[in-house]
Write a sequence for this structure.
């Protein structure tokens, strides 16, 4: 599309453009909002604001830190407590920072973006932290030094202006700072190109050069490992999402770790771990994508190339994450998208044992509590959840069973539903798994309103998760059809290629020119739901956000005959210009480069903005986004909706939250509105007249 008639909408904050947004918002709100909608929205907000949900905590020294939002604190409070208090039903929290109060005092709508502690000297308490706050919910944030003992920002302390920064402690008076230093300091992907040494009291512009990458690479990151006995500087040239070069500082020079760029390198104490994204031939041995290998750091850097395989995937099993306790390595695996946790003992020749049996069709994750704690170094957190099982948080010590610490409340009557796993056959014969949450005794006559959700990108796995929002917003809703049958919502989660459910190979099967495999998988699941009598086109809707928005955009344009309604959130849609918008350049490794003619030939086949055709029977579509989203940006959603309307598509609606960032919401109230609008739209379209 050489003549893009809606490119004018790319001016995100232009007066004319925002007036267009307000007009479209008004049309959509008039269609969706009602007293009944507000009641459902309030029930969703009740879930998000619930004071009974688990306050997930991170241990730092003798305290457990948590960030918390509720009705009283919509922007949230950063707080801490002791372990004994945390274990009680009503912990006594020491509030360190009230973000709502700070926003009022400073006249800025601050959104919490995280905290990073300086490691204290042995015997000293954790005291100094870098707190990141976004002024609008976007990825750009301001970073300020905070004293948790005195409960205030440090006078004259470190204060890095708002930008997409990467900042870490290098010592009590030193930071490694990657930020916007001016022209040429950010990559084409809008992330830091340099990391510099900033010393206390020094002006940002005087920071000493330390690490630098090419402008067309994604991001530069530098960090200092302050672990006693293993102090060292590391840097990473992140070329793209799947290629990077890791460096160690040796004799004041950056020395690259000698592995292919597709091999992820992680360093922990004396160990280096390696995980290849592609087949890796090393010293006459080929290691599979998604395997995990270990070596002694110093020996490997010195030239000893020996590697030990501690995990190797198969057709059903993939490694999702790993975590070190003081003496063990925890591995979180998926076997046909069901959790399995293994414990490896380096002192016993890396022998492996199962941590505990995980329930089927559930998601269970284990990770270290604090590997440096003298008494609790081998303790681990265990988080278990399922579609119909409220989340639980347990704590254990390796070698002894975990004990439950906290449990999420129930937000709907889970006993009315059942979970099942199914496999659809995609266009090329691949078996693709999906989960179905449906009412017990559901009639298989095609009459059930069904919501199919998916993502399929960036090696992200979708696993069973309890959601009071889905329970109240979709599963509990019902209507009585013309035959007098009461129908409840059915929820389906797709595990399509492009994701990480089966490791890097599952992901790479849908990269670049093979992107259509992800969409074929999603369509195959939609058809399987119809073939199994769960639903039919008029009762089937789908939803997805970000890369999932690109997925649902392709359902609108390429598979319109399969869906009655589509909710397309914070999406990529204009794949000709995506690499020039917001952080889009960083995703070329996933989708391809539209500026290269040979790659545009396949990219255009999954660019929804360019696939729109006049006279097509498109499903009812809600395209929604956020003005302050500085990752994908709102302009692709704007242009898609505008073009559909110009083509005469009558059943398309657009909504843009005027704040909220890429999440589409910066507080629980906004999140409740976002969820409720998406569910309301889909329900109205799939159950007309109900």
């Amino acid at each position: 599309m050489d003549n893009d008639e809606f490119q004018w909408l790319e001016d995100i904050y232009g007066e004319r453009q925002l007036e267009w947004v307000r007009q479209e918002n008004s049309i959509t709100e008039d269609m969706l909002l009602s007293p009944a909608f507000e009641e459902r929205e309030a029930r969703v907000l009740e879930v998000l604001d619930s004071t009974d949900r688990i306050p997930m905590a991170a241990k730092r020294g003798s305290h457990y830190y948590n960030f918390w939002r509720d009705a009283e604190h919509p922007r949230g409070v950063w707080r801490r407590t002791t372990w004994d208090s945390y274990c009680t039903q009503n912990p006594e929290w020491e509030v360190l920072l009230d973000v709502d109060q700070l926003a009022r005092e400073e006249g800025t709508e601050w959104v919490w973006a995280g905290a990073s502690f300086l490691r204290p000297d042995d015997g000293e308490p954790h005291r100094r932290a870098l707190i990141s706050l976004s002024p609008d919910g976007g990825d750009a944030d301001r970073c300020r030094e905070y004293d948790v003992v005195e409960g205030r920002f440090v006078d004259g302390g470190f204060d890095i202006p708002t930008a997409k920064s990467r900042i870490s402690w290098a010592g009590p008076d030193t930071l490694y700072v990657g930020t916007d230093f001016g022209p040429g300091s950010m990559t084409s992907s809008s992330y830091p190109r340099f990391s510099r040494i900033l010393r206390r009291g020094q002006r940002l512009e005087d920071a000493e050069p330390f690490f630098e990458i090419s402008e067309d690479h994604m991001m530069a990151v530098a960090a200092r490992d302050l672990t006693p006995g293993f102090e060292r500087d590391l840097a990473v040239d992140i070329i793209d999402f799947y290629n990077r070069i890791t460096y160690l500082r040796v004799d004041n020079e950056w020395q690259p770790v000698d592995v292919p760029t597709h091999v992820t390198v992680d360093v922990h104490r004396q160990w280096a771990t390696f995980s290849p994204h592609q087949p890796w031939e090393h010293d006459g041995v080929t290691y599979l994508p998604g395997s995990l290998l270990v070596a002694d750091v110093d020996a490997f850097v010195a030239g000893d190339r020996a590697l030990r395989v501690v995990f190797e995937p198969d057709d059903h099993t993939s490694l999702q994450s790993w975590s070190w306790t003081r003496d063990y390595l925890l591995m979180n695996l998926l076997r046909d998208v069901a959790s399995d946790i293994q414990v490896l003992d380096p002192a016993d020749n890396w022998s492996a044992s199962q941590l505990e049996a995980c329930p089927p069709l559930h998601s269970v994750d284990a990770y270290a509590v604090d590997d440096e704690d003298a008494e609790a170094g081998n303790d681990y957190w265990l988080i278990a959840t399922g579609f119909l099982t409220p989340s639980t948080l347990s704590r254990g010590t390796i070698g002894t069973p975990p004990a439950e610490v906290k449990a999420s409340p129930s937000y709907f009557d889970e006993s009315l539903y059942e979970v099942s796993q199914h496999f659809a056959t995609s266009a090329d014969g691949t078996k693709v798994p999906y989960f179905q949450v449906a009412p017990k005794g559901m009639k298989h006559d095609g009459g059930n309103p069904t919501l199919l959700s998916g993502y399929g990108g960036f090696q992200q796995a979708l696993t069973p998760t309890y959601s009071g929002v889905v329970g109240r917003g979709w599963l509990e809703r019902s209507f009585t059809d013309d035959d007098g049958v009461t129908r409840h919502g059915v929820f389906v989660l797709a595990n399509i290629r492009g994701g990480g459910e089966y490791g890097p190979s599952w992901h790479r099967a849908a990269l670049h020119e093979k992107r259509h495999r992800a969409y074929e998988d999603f369509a195959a699941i939609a058809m399987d739901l119809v073939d199994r009598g769960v639903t039919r086109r008029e009762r089937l809707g789908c939803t997805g956000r970000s890369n999932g928005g690109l997925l649902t955009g392709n359902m609108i344009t390429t598979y319109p005959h399969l869906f009655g309604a589509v909710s397309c959130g914070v999406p990529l849609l204009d794949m000709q210009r995506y690499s020039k918008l917001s952080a889009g350049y960083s995703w070329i490794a996933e989708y391809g480069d539209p500026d290269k003619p040979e790659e545009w030939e396949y990219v255009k086949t999954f660019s929804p903005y360019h696939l729109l055709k006049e006279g097509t029977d498109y499903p009812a579509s809600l395209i929604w986004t956020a003005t302050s989203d500085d990752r994908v940006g709102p302009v692709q959603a704007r242009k898609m909706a505008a073009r559909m309307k110009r083509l005469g598509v009558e059943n398309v609606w657009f909504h843009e939250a005027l704040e909220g960032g890429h999440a589409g919401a910066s507080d629980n109230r906004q999140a409740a509105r976002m969820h409720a609008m998406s569910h309301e739209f889909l329900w109205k379209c799939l159950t007309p007249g109900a």
Remarks:
- The first strand starts at residue 58 and ends at 60.
